[in-house]
TrEMBL record:
GO terms for biological process: methylation. It comes from Carboxydocella sporoproducens DSM 16521. SUPFAM superfamilies: S-adenosyl-L-methionine-dependent methyltransferases. The keyword Transferase applies. This is Methyltransferase domain-containing protein. CDD domains: AdoMet_MTases.
Length: 193
């Protein structure tokens, strides 16, 4: 089994170091995000990205904040309540079966894919719950030694991400390095011609 982020380490998700190496506003500015969309923030953690995603989709949009840990969902709810955001729905998952209350226009995975035990099946499930114009954004740690993040052996190369994405119902559109520690992949659903 792959490791999962320990909710007891939640403070790391909002640390000044994380804000420096992975500023949420910068990441979100690179997404194909439109007002009124329904976005899944899978592995929402403390709501680090949920809050700015909810602001971007606006009152006519919605963010489905999804996590396996109830304490993460509670932290996200508290954060979004304090921010006065009314367009966030909270969904607990077992991390295997993705049951969403409605189809989504986009899915955002930040530092999550390397934690998924069966990533191809997971990405196939995501493709199945998307609208026809659905997109997928994957932020992952670069496979280089550094103080932060998962063990180097669990980090995904761009080639591994490409193979997972392309082998699971998605088409990789672009890959961008987010210095100093991350990369961003954007994909869209594939359709048979």
């Amino acid at each position: 089994m792959t490791h999962r982020f320990d909710p007891k380490q939640m403070a790391k998700l909002d640390s000044p170091v994380r804000r420096q190496i992975l500023p949420p506003e910068l990441v979100i500015s690179k997404l194909p995000l439109l007002p009124g969309q329904v976005i899944v923030d899978f592995g929402c953690g403390s709501g680090y990205f949920t809050e700015p995603l909810a602001r971007q989709v606006g009152l006519n949009g919605k963010v489905l904040a999804v996590d396996v840990a109830p304490e993460m969902l509670a932290a996200t709810r508290e954060r979004c309540d304090q921010a006065g955001l009314l367009n966030v729905e909270y969904v607990q998952t077992d991390g295997v079966n993705l049951l969403l209350p409605q189809p989504a226009d986009g899915v955002f995975l930040a530092n999550v894919l390397h934690e998924i035990e069966k990533p191809v099946e997971f990405l196939q499930q995501l493709a199945a719950v998307m609208t026809t114009a659905g997109w997928l954004a994957i932020v992952e740690w670069l496979p280089q030694p550094m103080e932060w993040g998962p063990p180097l052996s669990e980090r995904l190369t761009i080639q591994a991400i490409y193979e997972l994405v392309e082998g699971s119902g998605w088409e990789l559109l672009c890959w961008e390095k987010l210095p100093p520690a991350h990369g961003l992949a954007i994909a869209r659903r594939k359709y048979d011609d």
